Automatic annotation (TrEMBL):
PANTHER family: NICOTINATE-NUCLEOTIDE--DIMETHYLBENZIMIDAZOLE PHOSPHORIBOSYLTRANSFERASE. GO terms for molecular function: nicotinate-nucleotide-dimethylbenzimidazole phosphoribosyltransferase activity. Its EC number is 2.4.2.21. It comes from bioreactor metagenome. The keyword ATP-binding does not apply. Pathway: Nucleoside biosynthesis; alpha-ribazole biosynthesis; alpha-ribazole from 5,6-dimethylbenzimidazole: step 1/2. This is Nicotinate-nucleotide--dimethylbenzimidazole phosphoribosyltransferase. It is an enzyme of class 2 (transferase).
Length: 278
């Protein structure tokens, strides 16, 4: 799920907003880290434009579910309207349904959108009633100066929007991204069909927290791939009662941790089936 974030313009990431489209081009060429790890995990990678601030109609293979050209700047008001949030969630449910109808028995979350760890930190603060200092991490490896900006942006977003603590749809509308909304829908869609979803890193876990807030029963169909370096990740996993398969200090996102966890599970299953068998 790919979507841009209005707050990226403040320099909350080590990379400019234009990198979102550059990464999508890499996915379509099959050369990004996410592609390599997906191949080694024997999984298929699909790219969905749910809110990219660019015209991707010329990119063959990109699924168009665009709700808007990026979210609004949440330091000035809500990131999206309720109608937009619901539309993005419904798009995620539709993607899940179509994958399941094709025979896939495991869904994997993956996202791309410069600035998304800032929205994730804001979601974690609002859903768990935590100060930004307890949820804002270094994301793409930002320096101390950018960390100050990132904390300020999250604090301003919380102050301006006054999200209702624990109200998932309200939090999503005010502070989230279309990537979060689409992944939340995908998780809900899988749970409705009794198909599990492998949750990737901190951004995907924020989406899982939103999904759980909307449909608590979906947590029974979540698998946690790994524990990332981001400080909000462990707190959100605790709320969801999820336990990571891998703890390798990863911070890339894009479904890479989920791919690694699948390889670990495939290896474990191979041992179970084949070790000491005559």
């Amino acid at each position: 799920m790919c979507g841009d974030h209005g707050i990226a313009k403040y320099g909350v990431s080590a990379y400019p907003p234009e990198v979102t489209i550059q990464m999508i081009n890499g996915y379509m060429r099959g050369t990004a880290g996410a592609n390599v790890m997906a191949r080694h995990a024997n999984t298929d990678l699909f790219v969905v434009d749910i809110g990219v601030n660019a015209d991707l109609s010329n990119l063959k293979g990109v699924r168009n579910e665009k709700v808007a050209w990026g979210t609004e700047d949440f330091t000035k008001g809500p990131a999206m309207t309720k109608e937009q949030a619901i539309k993005a969630i419904q798009a995620g449910i539709k993607v899940a349904d179509e994958c399941i109808d094709k025979g896939y028995n495991l869904l994997v979350t993956a996202e791309m959108g410069i600035g998304n760890t800032t929205s994730t930190a804001a979601i974690a603060s609002a859903m768990l009633d935590l100060e930004p200092g307890l949820t804002v991490g270094r994301g793409t490896g930002i320096n101390d100066e950018r960390m100050k900006i990132k904390r300020r942006v999250v604090a301003e977003g919380l102050a301006v929007n006054s999200p209702i603590t624990g109200d998932a749809l309200d939090v999503l509308c005010k502070l989230g991204g279309y990537d979060h909304a689409g992944l939340a829908g995908m998780i809900i869609g899988g749970a409705r069909r009794r198909v599990p979803t492998m949750i990737d890193g901190v951004n995907a876990t924020a989406a899982a927290l939103i999904a759980w807030g909307i449909y608590p029963g979906c947590s029974e169909y979540m698998l946690c791939s790994h524990l990332s370096e981001e400080i909000a990740h462990k707190k959100m996993l605790s709320q969801l009662n999820l336990h990571p398969i891998v703890d390798a200090g990863m911070r890339l996102g894009e479904g890479t941790g989920a791919s690694l966890a699948i390889v670990v599970l495939q290896t474990a299953l191979g041992l179970y089936k084949e070790m000491n068998k005559q």
